Q: What sequence folds into this?
């Protein structure tokens, strides 16, 4: 890939300059922002099997992490509070550690077949309260901790991005086999993948076995 050198005279360094490049915000885009979860937002959350959570520990450490479960896995405790279970993962704990350093979070809820999304901004805490965790048990397994989000801002996001991406369009689906397996790519990026196809296949099968054993 060729190197791109950014020209300082074309860099945007302040908000006034940035906003001068765009038309004024539509009045409805401002009015649609709520400070709580109304009936429509709560219904959207109850339908969503997937969300992305954005966190930040400092100026040089930001992260976006996916969270997924059967629809309704995020609990609407009340109009100002959401509960998100923390399921088993790779134990990097990026999201949780960031929340301890900086409680500000941004959530993006997605529903398969919906081109619209729901955005929720607020602050988060981490709890190990058994009364809360037992509410989110799946297959008899209780999460170690849960993320409690205090809601500050809620708004529905229009369909343009998903329609441009044709995200739910079956005709836009790509063939997963056109890229190597996750195990192969990670090994290439770290210790090096084995050249023996049988050994590689065994490692890939092991990952699938781990998925089945450690989802909850």
A:
């Amino acid at each position: 890939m060729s190197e791109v050198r950014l020209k300082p005279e074309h860099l945007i360094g302040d908000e006034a300059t940035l906003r001068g490049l765009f038309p004024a915000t539509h009045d409805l885009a401002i009015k649609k922002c709520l400070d709580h979860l109304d009936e429509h937002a709560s219904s959207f959350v109850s339908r969503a099997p997937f969300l992305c959570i954005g966190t930040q520990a400092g100026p040089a450490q930001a992260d976006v992490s996916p969270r997924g479960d059967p629809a309704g896995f995020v609990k609407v405790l009340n109009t100002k509070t959401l509960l998100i279970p923390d399921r088993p993962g790779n134990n990097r704990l990026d999201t949780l550690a960031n929340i301890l350093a900086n409680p500000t979070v941004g959530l993006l809820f997605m529903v398969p077949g919906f081109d619209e999304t729901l955005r929720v901004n607020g602050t988060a805490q981490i709890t190990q309260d058994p009364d809360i965790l037992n509410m989110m048990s799946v297959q008899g397994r209780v999460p170690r901790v849960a993320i409690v989000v205090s809601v500050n801002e809620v708004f529905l996001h229009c369909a343009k991005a998903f329609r441009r991406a044709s995200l739910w369009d079956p005709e836009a689906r790509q063939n997963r086999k056109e890229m190597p397996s996750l195990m192969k790519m990670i090994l290439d990026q770290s210790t090096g993948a084995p050249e023996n196809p049988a050994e590689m296949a065994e490692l890939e099968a092991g990952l699938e076995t781990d998925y089945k054993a450690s989802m909850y």
